[in-house]
Amino acid sequence: MGAADLTWFGSGSFTEAVQRLKLPNVKFSPHYLWDATRHSEPTVNAATVQIPPSRLPAAIAHFAEVTGMPRLPSDSWPVVYQTLESYAALHVFNFTEASKWSRDQATEKGFGIPRAAFTFVIRACQNEGTKLNADPSPEATAIARALFNSVLKRAELAGLEINETEKRELADWIHHQDQGF
Q1: Torsion (CA) 104, 139, 143, 77 in degrees, nearest 10
Q2: What is the value of pTM for the model shown?
Q3: 12 and 76 in contact (C-beta within 8 Å)?
């Protein structure tokens, strides 16, 4: 029994295993643990936002269902692109760090964008040849274009027939401004 077999030494969870250690001054929240004598409680400026499928426009809900595209509010997409653009310009690319850093930066700005959304866009960039480790690093518009093209390809591979109106709805929702698709 141990961490490797997910029994957490008979405790059932990581949190319970740490609590059993009875470490002085340890505090817990749903996503953090910290030493209260050394650190203040971590704050989260925004809740993670994903829109239920019933509240998305029909075409967007369908794209999300078929492709796995995150169900973010429309106004979150530019934040994703701008944050990834900043990451690419400031860091040596590391996939894990790119999604974590980007999520944390967005949270600090008041946007609760889940890490999985950044991961989805990073993979779209890789699939479309928009490398975040390129020199020069990609701009937000290139990242948006990569996401748009990747979602369309995923939808087509899944057998979804996409008309021009649906393409326009997707482009508008994710703030892809390139008219030449």
Answers
A1: 50
A2: 0.73
A3: no
To 10 degrees, what angle do helices 77-90 and 140-157 make?
120
Question: Residue type at 41?
Answer: E
Evaluate whether 112 touches 142 at the Cβ level (below 8 Å): no
Q: Residue 136: is the preceding peptide bond cis (ω within 30°)?
A: yes
Q: For the chain, how many helices (H) and strands (E)?
A: 7, 2
Confidence label for 2 from pLDDT (cuts 50, 70 and 90): low
Separation in Å, CA 56 to CA 49, 71, 88, 98, 173: 13, 8, 30, 27, 10
pLDDT digits (tens, 9 = 90+) for 42-69: 665 444 566 776 688 999 999 999 999 9
pLDDT band at 84 (very low <50, low <70, confident <90, very high): very high
pLDDT digits (tens, 9 = 90+) for 93-104: 999 999 999 999
Mind giving me the DSSP string for 75-123?
Answer: GGHHHHHHHHHHHHHHS---HHHHHHHHHHHHHHTT----HHHHHHHHH
Residue 132 to residue 149: CA distance in whole angstroms: 16
